[in-house]
Amino acid sequence: MTKTLENLRSQRWFAADNMRAFAHRQRTQQTGYRREEFMGKPVIGIINTWSDISTCHKHLRERAQNVREGIIRAGGFPLELPAMSLGEVMVKPTTMLYRNFLAMEVEELLRSHPIDGAILMGGCDKTTPGLLMGAFSMNVPAIYIPAGATLSGWFKGQKIGTGTHTRKFWDEKRAGNLSEQDWLRLESSMTRSHGTCNTMGTASTMTAIAEALGMTLPGACTIPAADSAHPRMCSLAGERIVQMVWEDLKPSDIVNEAAFDNALITYMAMGGSTNAAVHLPAMAGRLGISLPLERLDYWSQRIPVIANLMPSGSYLMEDLFYAGGLPALMSRLAGYLNLEQPTVNGRTLGSNLEDAEIYNDDVIRSLDNPITSQGTLAVLKGNLSPTGAVLKPSAATPALLKHRGQALVFENHAEMNARIDDPALEVDASTVLVLKNAGPQGGPGMPEWGGLPIPKKLLQQGVRDMVRISDARMSGTHFGTCVLHVTPESYIGGPLALVQTGDWIELDVDARRLHLCVDDDELARRKAAWQPPQAHYERGYGAMFSRHVTQADQGCDFDFLQGNAPVSEPEIF
Ligand code: FES
Ligand code: MG
Fold first, then answer.
1. Quick one: DSSP state of residue 561?
2. By CB count within 10 A, which of 173, 220, 459, 479 is most buried?
3. Would you say 326 and 219 are in contact if contact means Cβ atoms under 8 Å apart?
């Protein structure tokens, strides 16, 4: 034990013999707690991103109850603090606009209240990085509880995954291959329980990264939301966080450069979402760790995709759980991982993996029998993306990974939507679709528009993939040869802003190259004539976002939130 009662943070609120501390005790009793329920105990904040409209987190309100029970059993005092929910499906224009908002809220909720340790409850895409970034910055002991994936979807005897199949069925419907009746049936049968997307989308990627960093109990991220193991994991986390407060085991003691390497190795083996390429540098930045995109590419070139999960493979998160869960998958990677890393349960990663077993070699492939030899993330540079762009080779068409084609440019998303299905659109399968003004400032919020739809007339000809280029993100559940996160973004005058319809573009993923075949003099002329688009916001959160958001290769954090410079504790008076 390194913490004593006297030096718990919460004691500054509750222990003194003065009028202010009296008021804190009096008001806590006002809420129905007896003095002995909270005095002399670590106070644990349960940061819960439950809300009625957050479809993936519907069960987290009940689960907070399991956490509470664990905390009380271990001698702590639980306080549930709701935080911005960020359900991926309903929040517009994009949850990414609000990831930093959630991170700020988490940090300040923890700082401004008498909190000694935190349970972070989330799972839907941006909630995981948002919760972790806030907790890293505040650096009190914390355990992350992933919401768990929704059960596998089934339709007419076929296993279907969230997101991945939505797009596939929509394309079939637009191509005229799916009836109205089936489309209606799908609406009620695709998602069978609460929980996050069951494919290897952003949610599953980020919860696995949280576990690989050491921030969850072992195995937590692969427990299905509807499984009774989930509430048991929650109550165990409640017990454990109290112990962690006494041990003073903080995120900065757990998450270091070696932990990020473990996260990257796991991410690559999972065939995880490109969105992690934005969240990881942002998360690392909160601990003062620099994580350049090159580090992601380095591991992508060394670690094959061994998790056979959609969209790269054919199974779902529930299958990964039955195959032994994330610890089983990580045991396959033991030769690469830093096994001495500490984790929230007080044991090293290596010791947590000791009893891991693999029950299905098709779901968790061996390193020499990967589901694809293509890597999870390629970082592309060239005159079109001087500071980097990304592409997910494992979810792309191999034949398109080296491609030369002529650009068809859409100046923004609205124009693209209006024109994409026009029968007169001049486009063929070799065309490179280019979308501008969809980056962090341009979208705004860097929406998941990067998987541009295939033009209807090409769908009807049987085309299902094309090279697409944008400064947007793409849903981790989607498939396609999509160059994403082009930096600097077009809205601030990056080279993407200068592309014109008819320009030739060369993509060479093996060479990590993205080239606009227009000479420098012509580009300089276009740049001189370029006019910045109108600002999206005059006031409000959006105005602050636009002023302070960094580019995708820097993680899109706010400049003033980066780094680990100390912030003083609030004065109590
Ligand atoms: Fe919440 Fe996919 S919509 S995880
Ligand atoms: Mg998603």
1. G
2. 220
3. yes
- If you measure from the C-alpha of residue 499 to the centroid of ligand 2, how many angstroms do you get, rounded to a whole number? 28
Least confident range from 173-187, 258-272, 518-532: namely: 173-187
- The atom of ligand 1 lying closest to the CA of 88 is 3
- Spacing, Cα 199 to ligand 1 middle (Å): 10
**For position 165, what pLDDT does the model report?**
87
Measured from the CA of 163, which atom of ligand 1 is nearest? 2
**Distance between CA atoms of 245 and 248, rounded to whole angstroms?**
5
| First-to-final CA distance of the chain | 30
Ligand 1 pocket residue status of 125, Cβ below 6 Å: yes
Q: Check pocket membership of 203 for ligand 1, CB cut-off 6 A.
A: yes
- Which ligand number lies closest to the CA of residue 476? 2
Atom of ligand 1 nearest to the CA of 56: 1
Determine the pLDDT at residue 21.
Answer: 97
pLDDT category of residue 39 using cuts at 50, 70 and 90: very high
Q: What own/partner pairs with CB < 8 Å and gap ≥ 24 does 499-503 have?
A: 499/384, 499/407, 499/409, 499/434, 499/436, 500/407, 500/409, 500/526, 501/406, 501/407, 501/408, 501/409, 502/406, 502/407, 503/406, 503/407
Angle at alpha carbon of residue 415, lines to 409 and 420, rounded to 5°: 75
Tell me how far CA of residue 384 lies from CA of 410, 412, 446, in angstroms. Answer: 16, 17, 18
What is the pTM for the complete model shown? 0.97
What spacing in Å lies between the alpha carbon of 54 and ligand 1's midpoint? 9
Asked if residue 1 has pLDDT above 80, the reply is no
Extents of the domains making up the chain:
1-40, 41-152+192-353, 154-189, 378-533
Nearest atom, ligand 1, residue 123 CA = 4
> If you take atom 1 of ligand 1, which residue's CA is the nearest one?
124
Distance CA 24, CA 13 (A): 7
88 CB near ligand 1 (under 6 Å): yes
CATH number for the domain formed by residue range(s) 41-152+192-353: 3.40.50.2300
Q: Give the closest residue (by CA) to ligand 1 atom 2.
A: 197
- For a mutational test of ligand 1's pocket, the pick from 51, 58, 88, i.e. the residue with the most ligand atoms closer than 8 A to its C-beta, is 88
CATH superfamily of 378-533: IlvD/EDD C-terminal domain-like (3.50.30.80)
Both tokens assigned to 543: 């105005």
Burial of 315 (0-12, 13-18, 19+ CB in 10 A): buried
Concatenated DSSP letters of 97-115: GTHHHHHHHHHHHHHHTT-
What is the mean pLDDT of the segment spanning 469-483?
Answer: 93
What is the C-alpha to C-alpha distance for residues 330 and 277, in angstroms, rounded to an integer? 20
The structure tokens listed for 168 are 């596939």
